[in-house]
Design a protein that fits this description.
By secondary structure, the chain is mainly α. 83% of the residues lie in helices and 2% in strands. The protein contains six helices and two strands. The protein has a two-stranded antiparallel sheet. Helix 1 packs antiparallel against helix 6, helix 2 runs antiparallel to helix 3 and helix 4 packs antiparallel against helix 5. The model has no long low-confidence stretch (mean pLDDT 83).
Length: 183
């Protein structure tokens, strides 16, 4: 059980980092926009490493293991893109709009696989559908630049806080309404 706790602490720490960045972004959205973008890149690289470590220590998760590996790859790529290929805050926001849509679609596809393997519950399906709609609205608002820079960063920070809470909840309970149940 001690090893299990250590493994879950990886996701708990990942969730805490996402929440901390989200709170910092809410506080500093107007004054340190590019610093937040670079910090988000570094956060994604750390998150990718933590996801890989969690996946490595939990090979028994079957299909979830494959999705965790893919999540780690995407986090590493996102980290590199945000650190080295987002020269200004508008590019960062544009890339975030693509990233949020990608995350929502991939989570919806993962839900479909869970549904096909009878792992998914009704509340999970409803939550996935709601997150698809909400993520699409946020992504399109960011893409269309209808909110302006500060409010776009606020939306991104709220998304990061939600993502962090879901990771922390998954770590604590080994399941959550979006991810489904651990195998």
């Amino acid at each position: 059980q001690v090893a299990s706790t250590r493994q879950n602490n990886l996701l708990l720490f990942k969730g805490f980092l996402a929440i901390a960045w989200g709170v910092a972004a809410l506080i500093a959205a107007r004054s340190h926009a590019m610093g937040l973008a670079y910090a988000f890149g570094a956060l994604n690289i750390v998150a990718g490493i933590l996801t890989f470590l969690y996946a490595y220590k939990n090979k028994h998760l079957k299909i979830s293991h494959q999705w965790l590996f893919m999540e780690g790859v995407v986090e590493l790529i996102a980290g590199v893109v945000f650190l080295f290929f987002a020269p200004d805050i508008n590019t960062f926001i544009l890339y975030m709009s693509y990233g949020i849509m990608f995350i929502v679609i991939v989570q919806f596809i993962y839900g479909y696989f869970l549904l096909m393997t009878n792992v998914l519950h009704a509340k999970n399906l409803v939550a996935r559908f709601a997150s698809l709609i909400a993520g699409s609205v946020v992504s399109i608002a960011l893409l269309a630049n209808t909110l302006g820079t500060t409010w776009s960063l606020v939306m991104i920070s709220l998304f990061s806080i939600l993502y962090g809470v879901l990771n922390a909840q998954f770590a604590v309970k080994l399941r959550n309404i979006i991810m489904g149940e651990a195998e």
